[in-house]
C-alpha cells in the first residue's frame, strides 16, 4: 500500500504530445479517476505508471520509491485491463496464482491466498474453470482477484467496465469500490464514462489533449468547474455567452441575472439544468416557450427558448405533462450561477 | 438442404478432381510399381512382392540414409523454430511503418530457387570461398576450414531454405495472440523470459506445431541442397529416390523408397500433433 506521485510527467511521440506535464498526488487508500474524451492521454498516463510506456520526461514515484526507470515487473502494481487479459491457457486458480508463483510463495500459502482472493470476488466455486468458460463479468472479477492477490502497492484499472453490459457494469463497479475501500488500496482508474467516474472516484482528474484540465472531488468538479471543457464533460450544462457585471451576469441577448457571489471576469455563464426552477418567485425570472420535451425517467428535460432569445435545458423532476409549444416561466436561483473565464 | 449439398459439391469438384489427377493417381501408380519386381535390363516385371521393402529394411546402407535424413530434418526444424520465433514475434508486434518491407525481406529469398541458392552457398563455403577468406583475413584461422561437402553445410543450406516459411507461419499465428496477457504477466512480476515461456509460448503452440511440421516435411524431402552442398558421399532420402529412378531406372525400388519416406514423415507428423494436442489441450 502506498502513495503515487507524478511530477511533470510527459510523453511525446515524435512531435505529437500524448501527455503534457501531468502532476498528480494520489494519497494512500484514495481512488483517483482519470477522465476525459478518447485520445486525451488517460491510457498513456496509466501505462507510464505501470511501466509499459517510458516517460519522455518527469518523475514517477510509488511511495518514496522513484520507479521512473523501473521495468513493470519490479513496480508491484496490480493491473486490470479492459479486455480482462486473463491467461487463456491457465485455469482460474493458476491465473490468480501466477503472481504468487513469481514471488516464490510456498505452495500451501498459494492455495490459501488464491482461495481467499477468489472468495473475495465470489468466485470460489469456479477455480478449475478456464477463462473461456466464463462470462465477461466473471472474467473481470478473476482479473481483479489476480491483481489483488499480490498485495500491490497500487491498483491500476484501465476502463475495467467498458466491455460489460449496463447491469453487470453496476455490479462490478460496486464490487471494485467495496474491495478498494475495505482493503484501503491506492487506486488509479481510467474511464471516459463521467457517471462511472463521479460514482467511484474520491477525486477526478479531467484531461483533454494530454493536459490536466482540473483535479478535484466529484462535487467540486460539478459545482465549480474550472472551465467550459470540464463543465461540459462532467454533467449536463447550459452555457450562456456574455460578461460578468459587479452583481451578476448579462448575456449577449441582454438577459440580466443576479448572483449571490462574485463571478470575477467570467465571459461565460454556466447553469446546471436541474438548478433552474420552473415557476416564478425569485430575482432571476424569465419566460419562454418549450421547444422540445425528453422524458429521462427521474426527470424530464425541457428545451426552452426564452423570449429574450437565450436557450436553456431545464430538468423538471415532477412530471407536469408538458408538450411542445407550451409557455413556461423559469427562475434561476442566484446561487446557481457559475462563471467561467473561457 | 439438398440444394446446398449440391452446390457445395459443385464448388468442391474442381479441387477434388485436381487432387485426384495430380496427387492420388500418381501415388497409387507408384505404390503399384513398388510391388513389382526389378530385373536389370528388363526394366520392370509385373508382380506383387514385398521384396523392395524387405531390401530397404535389411540393407544398413538405406537405413543409414533414412537415419541421416531424420536427424538432419529434426535438427533443421529445431534450429528454424529457435531462430525463427524471435523474428516472427518481432514482426508480429512491431509498430514500425516499415513492417510490410520487413515481411518482404523475409519473403525475398523465396524468389531465388533452391538450386541457385545452394550454388551461392557453394561459393561461400569453398576452400577459397568467402567465409574462409574472411576468417583468414581476420587472422582467426591459418588453414581453410572444411565446410563444403559436410553435414554442417547441408544443415545451413536447408535452414536457409526453410526459415522464411517458418517465420511467416509463426508470424501469422503470433499476430492473432493478444499482447495484453503478456503485459499482465509482467505486471505480476514475471521477467521477460518467464513471460515468454509461461504466457506467449503456450498460446503459440498451434503455430509452432504448424511451422515445425511444415519445416520438417520440407527438410525430409530436400533435394537440391543435399545434392549440391553435401557432395557425393552425403546421402539423404530424396536424392536417393531420384537416383534409383533416374540413374538406375529402378522404379520398383524407387517407389518403395518414396513410400517409406512418405510413411515415416506422415507418422512423425501425426505423432507430433497427438503429443502436442494432449500436452496443451489445443
Ligand atoms: N504509439 C503511439 N504512437 C503515436 N501516438 C500515440 C501512440 N500511442 C498513443 N498515441 C497518441 O497519444 C494520444 C493519447 O492516447 P491514449 O491511448 O492515452 O488515449 P486515451 O485517453 O486512453 O483514449 P481512449 O479513451 O480512446 O482509450 C492519442 O492522441 C494517441 O493517438
Ligand atoms: Mg485508453
Helices, strands, pairings?
The complex is a heterodimer of chains A (342) and B (282).
Chain A: E1 4-13, E2 16-26, E3 31-35, H1 42-50, E4 57-62, E5 65-66, E6 77-80, H2 92-102, H3 107-120, H4 136-148, E7 154-158, H5 166-183, E8 187-191, H6 194-200, E9 203-208, E10 211-216, H7 218-223, H8 228-233, E11 238-244, E12 248-251, E13 256-258, E14 268-271, E15 277-278, E16 284-295, E17 300-306, E18 311-316, E19 327-332, E20 338-340
Parallel strand pairs in A: 3-8, 3-9, 6-7, 7-8
Antiparallel strand pairs in A: 1-2, 1-4, 4-5, 9-10, 11-12, 11-14, 12-13, 14-20, 15-19, 16-17, 16-19, 17-18
Helix pairs in contact in A: 2-3, 2-4, 3-4, 4-5
Chain B: H1 2-34, H2 51-58, H3 60-93, H4 99-107, H5 114-125, H6 130-137, H7 151-175, H8 180-187, H9 192-220, H10 224-230, H11 237-247, H12 251-280
Helix pairs in contact in B: 1-12, 2-12, 3-7, 3-9, 5-10, 7-9, 7-10, 8-9, 9-12, 11-12
The site of magnesium ion has 2 residues of chain A, from helix 1.
